[in-house]
Amino acid sequence: MEENILIIHPRDNVAVALRTIEAGEQALAQGMKGFPASEDIPASHKIALRNIAEEEEIIKYGETVAVSIRPIKKGEWVHTHNLESKRWKR
Amino acid sequence: MELTGYQRKDGKFGIRNHVLVLPTVSCVNGVVNRIGREVPEAVCATHPHGCGRGGPRDVEILFRILTGMIHHPNVGGVVLVGLGCEVSNTKRLLPLIVDSGKPIEIFNVQEDGGSLATAGKGAAAARRILSEINSQPRVAFPWDQLLVAMECGGSDALSGVTANVALGAVSDRLVEKGATVIFGENTEMIGTAHVLARRAKDAQVAKQIEEMVGRAERITHEVMGDLAGLVISPGNMDGGMSTIAEKSMGCIVKGGSTTINQVVDYGEIPAEHGLILQDGPGYDGDSMAGLAASGAQLMFFSTGRGTPVGFPALPVIKVASNTRIYQAMKEDMDVNAGSLVEGRPLNQLQAEMIDLMIRVINGEKTKAEVNGMEVLTFMTVHPPF
After folding, report:
1. Hey, what CATH class is B18-133 in?
2. Cβ distance B349 to B167 under 8 Å?
3. Predicted model pTM
């Protein structure tokens, strides 16, 4: 199966969808086991690589880019509905 | 493979040996365009400035950019076309360029018989300088004499995922080889000051980074008010970027991951090697001029929406973030970083980009050079009078 998500940094807890991934479809990155997307992930949006607790940091590029505002399960879409900016409220 | 270029009197090396035809003020752009039609080998860098702004910061920037273009290592000789009554007139510029060690011929439309006569004299001068410098040989130069700029513009949702990550990999490799890498765009660092400051060489550089990004954020709020949040726009969010920090990470990743050795002002020439930050604006054209005036001999420029822009006398390597725009603007794009999405390993793409860069340094033209897409414009901070 073709890789459809990209992990930018080994520390990251989210990956980038390289194309639109449909609910139930396997998300697959280089060098890791596939896992199902639990909802539709639009192209270039983020998918959770593991379970993320409420108020846990969202890590992309190996750095904190946001904080979750509710628990996020592995395979879920990660965007403005379940995170907030640490700095500007967007 | 070795790097070759043209040794300048100040010890620097140019990777091109251009004759630059530069107006001191926009009023004489037409004269410069006429010279360009007569001598197509000359690089004619018209611009919209030179007068009508009297604030000390604008005057400082004006003189820094014009002298930076004249001193630029890729420039072998200059035809400077002035008007006579402008702020950056040739008499005021002369003391700043007299020691350049390269042939410079100066004309003024108000003293040289008007526009047509000045264009004729300027064209003859451009031909004279061309024949004078054409025989200068290329010589090998070391990596620590190379200054490469990293720029992004017309970005899309993949720019921070593919193209800028590739630029970052190239940045890291260049620093490892002893070269200097510079990038600016302070508005695109908002939200990541702490990440950059952590990589600073010392506490002083860390403080400069915090101040630079803090200032950019404050000015953005002052100018845009409630719309400041649009620095991350609805379009960015539709593309999957959730916060300003996430967007900015996708920008600063183009500088790679090495220690930040210096923060320079807009158009200032770095004193350090390794990775350098420039306190310059996010707008592509203005940013490019600052990076060029800092002495960058070459620029990597990532784009996702697709911009054809180049820069006078400075080869610009265009890196597409996605295969669609690489195909759609094939004549404008030099590298396809969209190949990362199709499973190409980053180290392969990095090697291809370094290899292309060395060929460009040694004379191969970039697409923007072939197409003649040079644009010169630069930052001002006050409205005109």
Report:
1. alpha beta
2. no
3. 0.95
